[in-house]
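Lecture notes, part 5. Sequence design as translation. It can be helpful to think of inverse folding as translation between two languages: the language of shapes and the language of residues. The source text, in structure tokens, appears below.
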């Protein structure tokens, strides 16, 4: 067995409200849960999630700020989880197709590695979403295209690891994309209560 320790490491979790933890309570968002893992004892885990965050804004604004968190001699890990807002929400920058969002994510990753070549990049695939700009069926096809591109191409960008939150066996591995699928008994307990679009998670979902 190989054991990894990250004493003194800096881990920055960047993304939208799924990272910040909208819908969760009591420290159940995923960055806070990371802090409790024994291998990360002694590491600094930053929750850089922001409601409404988009790939466009990460690329032009928050990304260069993230680069400044690097400390010489310390492991620097960047976890990236966005795509939902770029595809379905981002009216100010024009909603993206899956291919357009993938191109922005690729550039974001390349820029971070160019600025800090030792950074370890971890990218998460994107959750399904009911409704949104494109509508449920078309919007989720764009998300599926985006996720497929991540799985196929991220290693070539220099990404160290991809976490597929929608792999077979996950509650988020949907076989259909109708409103009924989002309200199915298998996933209903995990959504934030009272949210029409079914994208944010409650504590059970995290």
């Amino acid at each position: 067995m190989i054991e990894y320790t990250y004493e003194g490491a800096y881990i920055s979790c960047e993304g939208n409200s799924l990272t910040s933890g909208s819908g969760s309570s009591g420290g159940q968002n995923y960055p806070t849960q990371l802090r409790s893992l024994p291998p990360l004892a002694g590491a600094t885990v930053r929750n850089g999630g922001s409601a409404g965050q988009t790939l466009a804004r990460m690329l032009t604004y928050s990304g260069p700020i993230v680069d400044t968190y690097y400390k010489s001699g310390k492991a620097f890990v960047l976890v990236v989880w966005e795509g939902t807002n770029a595809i379905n929400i981002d009216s100010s920058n024009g909603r993206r197709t899956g291919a357009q969002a993938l191109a922005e994510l690729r550039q974001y990753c390349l820029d971070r590695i160019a600025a800090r070549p030792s950074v370890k990049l971890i990218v998460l695939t994107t959750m399904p979403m009911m409704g949104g700009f494109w509508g449920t069926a078309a919007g989720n096809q764009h998300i599926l295209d985006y996720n497929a591109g991540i799985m196929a191409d991220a290693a070539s960008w220099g990404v160290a690891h991809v976490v597929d939150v929608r792999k077979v066996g996950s509650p988020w591995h949907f076989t259909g994309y109708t409103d009924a699928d989002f309200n199915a008994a298998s996933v209903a307990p995990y959504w934030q209560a009272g949210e029409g679009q079914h994208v944010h998670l409650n504590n059970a979902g995290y």
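The translated text above is only one of many valid answers, since several sequences can fold into similar shapes. The mean pLDDT is 89.
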